[in-house]
Automatic annotation (TrEMBL):
Family as reported in the entry's similarity comment: Belongs to the short-chain dehydrogenases/reductases (SDR) family.
Residue segments, region Disordered: 1-38
Residue ranges with Polar residues bias: 1-16
UniProt entry keywords in alphabetical sequence: Oxidoreductase
Keyword Magnesium among UniProt keywords: no
Cited CDD domains: SDR_c1
Lineage per the UniProt record: Bacteria, Pseudomonadati, Pseudomonadota, Alphaproteobacteria, Hyphomicrobiales
Entry keyword annotation includes Transmembrane helix: no
PROSITE patterns: ADH_SHORT
Protein name per the record: SDR family oxidoreductase
UniProt xrefs under Gene3D superfamilies: NAD(P)-binding Rossmann-like Domain
GO MF entry, a single one: oxidoreductase activity, acting on CH-OH group of donors
Taxonomic superkingdom: Bacteria
Family matches, as NCBIfam families: PRK06701.1 (NF005214)
């Protein structure tokens, strides 16, 4: 980072959402930082938004720890194929399932395809999301509001509803919320609202499923370098992304994926209804 300009990244944008990891400069760091120890051996993880960014880092880390992976994504086919290759290079099996989780019928099909391939689901990662900044609340159209809630909240509900009958004692659900749920974001009103709803959903579902032995937790990342960033913000904002955190930089996906692994495995066996905060030191109320 340049001390004079607070620049953390090269200025860049992408002209459509979802963004493509193949077009980012520099590429996000997704590689696990340590050898696997079998913490997910014999498990199956279904990851929405698993083609790139945080989802890719989770998929590769879980694979290194022994899990087979089902990746759900919208239409980023090149990124998804690369993540599949990376998972398989760790010695695990992987299927990729394109489609819109905001469609309840597709969410059911994604779960059915996972079961057909692997026979079980042990961990559900609800990670897919979209965001569309607007300076004024009046500029948030009904269509944008519907899209944001349909992906971020409806899709999470639909996927959870479809997967839940196939989860057993010891299974885990982990939902990706955001630092914006805690500190707010004046230009991401609808997105922040969905992420706050995810916190409430996580805590409520955790209480609902505790008697069944299914743990439900969340992760609230701060500014993480993923395809969502250059596909959302103008180049000048991307260039200073993460500079306003105490650590003065954006986080990398592999700095977040370890939170998901902790919550998915027995290391966190006495945690449910909790949220972890990999956010570069941004103060929040947890």
């Amino acid at each position: 980072m340049s001390a004079e300009t607070e620049q953390t990244l090269p200025p860049q944008t992408q002209d459509r959402q979802p963004g493509r990891e193949t077009e980012m400069n520099p590429k996000p760091d997704f590689e696990p930082r340590y050898p696997g120890s079998g913490r997910m051996r014999g498990k199956v993880a279904l990851i929405t938004g698993g083609d790139s960014g945080i989802g890719r880092a989770i998929a590769v880390l879980f694979a290194r720890e022994g899990a087979d992976i089902a990746i759900v994504y919208l239409d980023e086919n090149q990124d998804a194929r690369e993540t599949k290759r990376l998972v398989e290079s760790e010695g695990s099996a992987c299927i990729i399932i394109p489609g819109d989780i905001g469609d309840a019928a597709f969410a059911r099909r994604a779960v059915e395809q996972t079961l057909a391939a692997f026979g079980r689901i042990d961990t559900l990662i609800n990670n897919a999301a979209e965001q569309h900044p607007q300076h004024e609340i009046a500029d948030i159209t009904p269509d944008q509001l519907e899209r944001t809630f349909r992906t971020n909240i409806f899709g999470l509900f639909f996927t959870t509803q479809a997967a839940l009958p196939h989860l057993g004692r010891g299974s885990t659900i982990i939902n990706t919320t955001s630092v914006t749920a805690y500190r707010g974001s004046p230009d991401l009103l609808d997105y922040s609202a969905t992420k706050g709803a995810i916190v409430a959903f996580t805590r409520s579902l955790a209480k609902k499923l505790a008697d069944q032995g299914i743990r439900v937790n969340g992760v609230a990342p701060g500014p993480i370098w993923t395809p969502l960033i250059p596909s959302t913000f103008p180049a000048e904002k991307v260039a200073k992304f993460g500079a306003d955190t105490p650590l003065k930089r954006p986080g990398q996906p592999n700095e977040v994926a370890s939170c998901f692994l902790f919550l998915a495995c027995e290391d966190s066996s006495y945690m449910t209804g909790s949220v972890l905060h990999p956010n570069g030191g941004d103060p929040t109320e947890s």
